[in-house]
Amino acid sequence: MTTTLRLVIDQPTPLADLDATHAARELAVALAQTAPSGCEVRGIAPGDADRESLAALPGIAGIDRLALRGATVAGLWRRGVRAGAGDGLVHSASLAAPLVRHDRVHEHDQTVVTLWDLQAWDAPETLPRGAAAWARVMLRRAVRHADAVVVPTHHLARRLADLAPLGDRIRVIAGAPAGALRVPSDEIGRRRELSLPEGYILMSAASTSTADLVVAFHAVATAGRDTAVVVLDVAEGQEPMLADAASAAGIAEHRLHLRRRVDVADRAAVYAGAVAFVAPESGNRFPWRVLDALRLGLPVVASASETNRELLLDGATLAEPGESEALGQALSQTLASTDSVERLSILAADRGRAFSWLGAAERTWQLHAEL
Predict the structure, then answer these.
(1) pTM higher than 0.90 for the full model?
(2) Rounded to whole angstroms, what are the CA distances from 143 to 8, 11, 89, 111, 164?
(3) pLDDT over 80 (residue 314)
């Protein structure tokens, strides 16, 4: 008899978090690769999910497509309606799941969801309209019906325990960089296509507030280096505000390069052309782009937030959160010599090896076995 673990692939959620969507796909492939004997992985996806990208997931036994569009499914799951998702073992890389009454003991039904951050509680104004309310409702449903709630850090586990009466149902399984994240052979050509120079300081606007990016701009100015600055993952319409902030910090217009979100290969090429990655996040959202930097052995200078302290350890140089002078001094020390850059690059790459989707998948299978 085959045991089927069904994973919610495309998240029917108003949160619109592309990183969580990509995480679900990475986890699906890794679960298929690490499936114990007699187990298989199937996907659950709303009716409007992209068929071509779903078909490209290797090792998945199949995709159970729901008859409804994602927005409709999200609304029904919020109200406790299965919306055709069925029962059995269900795992979601977000809060989007059919959180309804089920029998884990006799019917062996399980439902596990994931919470990557507490943005809906800490900064609801930064989310799309209705997203924070949706997340709060789904967490309340998880308290009643989830067999486990996965979070990526122990710090978030402690905060969630204070927020919701989940007891020992909170489990910690970190995310990881994309499996395809490796420097492409045509990296130089890709950077040219993006009109980027060589040897710049890199940042990302993903999971980073504008206020924290302003701190990072001032940190670069404090470091006193006439180096280009590249900011990835800039949202449409965010460019003028960031350009003004960089100018006010003392970064000349010709040194600033703002770019939208790019695919994995282009992102790896951009990382490969940088001399350091600056992560000024003072909050505690999961630092996807910082883990990318670690994976590729790029020296990281980061804010010493609770999340960064837990995840990065000695793989990054940490500075007091929100203090541009401290961050700038750390950046200056990082780039002080070739030996310093090489040493920090080795430390970053070594720490980056701690995060993999295969490891996350093995812990996910163990979690369901324990349940």
Answers:
(1) yes
(2) 19, 20, 18, 12, 7
(3) yes
